[in-house]
C-alpha cells in the first residue's frame, strides 16, 4: 500500500464511474443497412428484417467490444487527426467466389467509413450500416445451460442462447438498429424444462451486466450488480427470479458513426488478386488483398475451400450436382491424378467368427480395430450375439493390399468389482473380400477365450487378440463419391441434452464435423456435404466429446438415427433402438458408449470422385487442385500444405560450435505458420531450461542438444544441435588469500583449487587487475526502472567509500517501487575485457539488477540480476562489452525492485514462532455444516461432537489470543446452513433459530477480540429482501457495539442503523492502523458505494475487505490463481478493491476449495493485493476420526463434512511486509486440510504459505558495499595441476599498504576457460 496522493482520481460517485468489459466494437460486416449518418433517428424498419430473433448473428461470443474501462458516458467527438483503421471484411488473404459481402466498420467514434474501393475503383452498391454494440455479463460457476432455453429480450427483440456458458464473461452482439438514444431495456429470462416435479427453471447467476457502444458505455446506475436466476429445484428457492430487467441510458445515437457494406458478385471481378481499401472520414485506412477464383458454369464442386491450409491426410472431393445428370471425369493435384493411400476402395468386406453360448453383449462395447479404426460388434437391431456366426461389415477403405492388422477387443462395463470385461468365445475367425484373396495369419488359432473372467479372475482369457491378415486385391487410390449437395443425419435426443458446447463429433466415412448445436428432448439434425457419402456401404460415427478444460464427456442418448442423402436413399444396417453415449462423470460410467459406429447402405449414383491425399508426399507450399466435369468444364482450387515443424533458426551454442566457456542456452525457432509454446530442450537426454548455462561440467567431446518443437497446425519434430565441449572447467574455488584480506605480507602466495570435467590436468593463470572506482554517483527512487541515461530526480551521492573492504557503505533512498544508484567509472581503452562487480545488501524479497548503458542502443542492458541474500552480501558480476563504453566511461546502474512475488519459502507446516511476527489475524468461514449438525442430529452425543468442532476453533482462538498476538478475527459468512431461503414451516424456522443460537454462542467466545462475521448466502436468504433479519437478530450492530466497548484501540461501525449486513472495524496492530470492511452476500450498488466511501474515508489505514462470494476455487495443486466468483467478486474488485490503493488483503469463502491470488499491480497506483479463499466446508473426515465411529450408527470410514474445523492464522511481519499463512484444525489437532479434500485437488502448498503484503511499511531499498570495474593488466604466473588440486603462484614486488585486485582463470587441455570473481587484498603497512 502507498500513502494517499493529495488529489485522488475518482468519480464524484460510483454511479459515474462505469467500468466496462474488454470488448471490441463494432463487428464489421454483419450489421444490416441503416439510415444515413445525418439522420438523427434512423428508421429501424429500414435496417432490420422483420424477424426479431436476428438470426444473422452467429451466437453469443466473447470479447467482441472495445474496452471503455473507466469511461464516463459522453458524446463522441470527431477526430482531429486520422483515427484508428476501420474493420474490413473479407479478411486479408481470403479466397473468394460467388456472392460475398464487403463491409467496413468504424473503430473510432465520430469517424465514419466514407469509402471502400477495389483496385482503386469505388465499390458500387454501398449502403450505410449502423453496426453492432455488445451486451456483456459474467456467468458464474453454475452454468447457464442452453438446453433450458434461456434467452434475452433487447427492446422487444428476442435473442436466443446458442451455447452453454459457465465461469466466463459473455458478450452478446446487439444490432444498433435495435437500440435507441435514451432508455434501453434488456430482459434476462431463465428457461425451463419439464421434470418429475413440474417445470424446472435453469439456475445461474448473472452479474456485471453492461451495454457497450462505440465510444460509450451506457449508463446503468439503477441496475443491480447481480441476479440469481431460476427457481432452485422446481420452485424451492423463492429468492431466485425467472426474469430480471435492466435498463441502460444511451447518451448518443446508437450507430451514428456509420460503416459501409455491399453485396458483391465476384464473378464481375477477374479471377486473381485484388486490393480492397476502406477509408474513414479522417483518412484512416485498412487494406486487404483478396483472391477471386470463380469456376465456370458446369464445373464440379471442388473441396476443400480455396486457400485451405492443411497438413497430413486431406480429403479432396469433386462432384457434379446430386440432382443433375452430369459427372466428374478427373480430379488432379498439380496436374497428376489425386491419389491417397492404397486401399481396397469403395464397398465392404466381411470379418466373421463363431460365437459360443456365452454371448457377445452389446452393452460391453466389444469391437474390432481394423488398422486402428474402431468398428462395434452387435447383432441386428443392436441385439447381443450368441451361438451364431457374427459377421461384421468392414469398409474397404479401411483395408489395404498387403498386411492388415485386425484386433478383436473385449469391451468392459462398470460392476461392483470395477471394470468387468465381456467373456465370450470366438472361433473360426475369417476375413473375406469381394475382389481378391486373403491369407490368414500363420498364428491363427481355432478359437479364443475372450474377456477376463469376473473382474480379472481368469488367467487364460485374453482382453484382445491382434492378428495380421494379408490381402491380395487391386489397389485403389481414389474412389467414387455422391454428387454435390447437402446430406443430413438426424436422431432423437433424450431428456439429457446433447450439449453444443461439448466437442461432440459426427464422423462420416472418416471426415469429421463438430456438432455445435444443443438438442434436448427432440430431433437434432446435422448437415454435411453430400459428397462425403459413397455409393453403397458408409460408416457414420457419433462421438461424445469433452467440455473445454474438463475431463468430462457429454452424456446423452440418441435413437431413430436417419441418414438422408441429397438424392437417393440410405438404409441403416444392424440398427439398435437407442444408443447411450458419454462417460458419467469423468469416466465414472463405463456402460455408455464413447462413440457409436453406424453403417448405412446408400443407393444413389456416383457423380464425383474422392481421394484422401497424404499431403506429406507434397512439398510445403501452394498446390493446384483441379476437377473436370464429364462435359469439359474445369474448376481449380489452391491448397496450401505445411507438414514441417518449426526449425531452429539460431541457437546459443550454435550447431557445430565448440564450447570453451559457459554460455546461456538460447534457441530461436521459425515456422511458416507460427510456433506454439516454448522449445523443450534436452542435453544428452537430460532436460535443460532456456537461459541455463551450457558448458560447466560437460566432458570434452561431442554432445547433442535436442529441441522439441511444435507449430499451430500440430506439426512436431525433434531438431538436433551438435556441439563439441572443450571441457569447460569449474569456477576456481578456495581462493587464497580470501577476498578482502588486509595486512597481507609481501610476497603473497596466491592459490586456488581448479577442476575440469574430465579429471585431466588444468592450468591456472593468475593475473593482476586494475580496480577502477566510480568518479560520480547519483541515486533516487522511481515508479519503474529508469530508461534514460540521466534519470530525472536523481541526486548526487558521495563517490568515496565504494572500495571493497573499506568498511563503508552507501544506502539508497527508501522507495515505494524502485530504488536505484547510478555510477560512472572511467576505464582505459587498452582494457579489453573489464568486469563489473557490485556487492551489497537487499531484502531477499526484492530483486537487484546490475545494468550498463548501451551507447549504441541508447538503453540500459541488464548484465546480471538476483534476489537479495538472506545471509551476507549479494554479489553481481558481469563483463562489460565495447558497446558499454561512452568515451572512456562505463555507466553502471544498480536497481532494486519489488516483484511482489508469490515465491517465498513457507518452511515446514506449523504455526510461526510469535517472536518472528508482530501480530496475527484468524480467518474462519463457512461453518454451516457444523452449526447444522449441532441442531439436526438425532442424539445429544452426535450433536455435541458437531458443536465441538465449531467450539474448538473459537475456543482455541480465545485461549491463544495473547500468545499468538491475535489482533483480529474474521468470519467470512455462512455461519449457518438453512437460512438460504425463507423458511416455509415452523420446523425449518426452529432449525434456523437453533443454528443461529449455536453460531452466536461460539462466536461470543471471541467477542473480547476485535472481530467480524459477514452474512453469507446461507445466512441472508441469498441476499433477498428481509433475508438478513435473523442474521441481525444475532449478529446485529448492538452486539458488536457492545463488544467494542472492551476492545483496545478498536471500534465498530455498521452501514445503517440496525443492519450489520455491511460493516467495518477499525483496529491497530504491529504499530499500524487497519480498516476491515465486511460485505454480506449479494452486494448492491449502494452497498459497494458505501464500502468504497469507507476505504476512502480511512485512506491512511491499511485496508482489508471481507466478503463471502468473491473468488472461485483454484484448479491448481498449489491453490493458486483463480477468477472471481459470482455474483459479488467482479463488481467488488472493480468498484471497491481497484479504486482504493489502501486495500491490501481480501478474505472470502462460499466456493468449496482454496485460492491464493497475489496481484502485484492493482488500480491506478499499482499496489499489491492478496486475495484468499479458504473454504473447507466440503472437506470430509472419517467418522471414526472425530469420535462418531461408535455413535449414531456411522461406519468409522464414512466421510463426514467436518472440514470447517480448519481455520487459518495469518501472521504478519511488519518490517518485512510478509504474511505467514498456516491452516489448523483444533478438533483434529492437524495442519493439513488438503488430505481431506474428497476431490484431491490440492497439496500442502495450498495451505502453508508465506506471501508478500503491501502494507504501508513495504518499501524497497539497497545498500552498496562496493562497486568497481576490474581490468586484467598482467599475468602474475601460471601453474598446471591435476583436476581438483590446488595451484599456487608467488606474487612479489607489492607496495606496502596498497589494495590490489587479482583474478584466476582455469583452462583445460581442450581449451575450456572459466574465470573466478575478482579478489582483493591489501598489503600490510609500515616501512620495509
Task: Summarize this structure as a short list of keywords or feature phrases.
Lipoxygenase-1, 9-stranded mixed β-sheet, 7-stranded antiparallel β-sheet, 7 helices, 1328 residues, disordered N terminus, mainly beta
Overview of the structural elements:
The protein has 1328 residues and is mostly beta strands. The protein folds into eight domains: 14-259, no CATH class; 301-341 and 611-641; 348-472, Lipoxygenase-1; 484-604; 649-725, Immunoglobulin-like, CATH 2.60.40.1220; 733-770 and 1266-1323, Immunoglobulin-like, CATH 2.60.40; 772-903, Jelly Rolls (Sandwich), CATH 2.60.120; 914-1252, Purple Acid Phosphatase, chain A, domain 2, CATH 3.60.21.40. The chain contains seven helices and 92 strands. Strands 60, 62, 65, 67, 70, 88, 90, 91 and 92 form a nine-stranded mixed β-sheet that branches. Strands 63, 64, 66, 68, 69, 71 and 72 form a seven-stranded antiparallel β-sheet that branches. A seven-stranded mixed β-sheet has the order 76-77-78-79-80-82-81, with helices on both faces. A hairpin with a 2-residue loop joins strand 12 (192-195) and strand 13 (198-201). Helix 1 runs antiparallel to helix 2, helix 3 (986-1003) runs parallel beside helix 4 and helix 6 (1085-1097) runs parallel beside helix 7. Mean pLDDT is 89; it is low at 1-80.
